[in-house]
Amino acid sequence: MLFYEIKVNYSRQTGEDNPGKVKETYLVEGFTCADVEERVMEEIKPFIFQGDCEVQSCKKVQYYDLIPVNSGEYWYKSRVELITIDNDKEIRKAASILVQADNMQDALHTLKQHLASLDCEITGLAKSPIVDVIRATE
């Protein structure tokens, strides 16, 4: 299965105020952009206030791993260098890992725990615009 990052614009009821335009980014597991667009539309359909939902972009992305934490509110994208030794030569391979957490400190802690058994170096961690991850098994 592949992952796609899809950005959508639509009008959403935002509390007691009038509806407002929102731009949201989702990470969706699927086979094609058409497949993931359909799944995102089904997911956000109950929240659309009026009008249409516009897909701004859909692109294939690659993550080495996803670390979901049910209590986490945000997704953080980390850059990690995985280190291996081959014929006495150090080989570093860059990888992206998505971590769910309430804040950056929790994300870093969860990431370090998850990677404890690997020889690697965390080279970056930043808050991601992704609001939800939609897996194929959902």
Please characterize this protein's 3D structure:
This protein is of the alpha/beta class and 138 residues long. It has two domains: 2-61, Ubiquitin-like (UB roll); 65-128, no CATH class. Helices cover 17% and strands 52% of the residues. The chain contains two helices and eight strands. Strands 3-1-2-8 form a four-stranded mixed beta sheet. The protein has a four-stranded mixed beta sheet with strand order 4-6-5-7, with helices on one face. The relative contact order is 0.22.
Short description:
The chain has 138 residues and is an alpha/beta fold. The chain has two helices and eight strands; from the N terminus they run ββαββββαββ.
Class derived from helix and strand content: alpha/beta
User: What string gives the helices and strands in order?
Assistant: EEHEEEEHEE
Sheet bearing the most strands, described? 4 strands, mixed
Mean pLDDT: 91
Number of helices: 2
State the total count of DSSP E strands.
8
Helix content: 10-25%
Strands of the biggest beta sheet: in what spatial order? 3-1-2-8
Overall, the morphology is elongated
How big is the Rg?
Answer: 18 Å
Q: Kindly estimate the percentage of residues that lie in beta strands according to DSSP.
A: over 45%
Termini Cα gap: 14 Å
- How many distinct domains? 2
- Name the poorly predicted regions: none
Outline the secondary-structure elements.
Elements: E1 2-12, E2 20-30, H1 33-44, E3 54-61, E4 65-67, E5 74-86, E6 89-101, H2 104-114, E7 120-127, E8 130-134
Parallel strand pairs: 2-8, 4-6
Antiparallel strand pairs: 1-2, 1-3, 5-6, 5-7
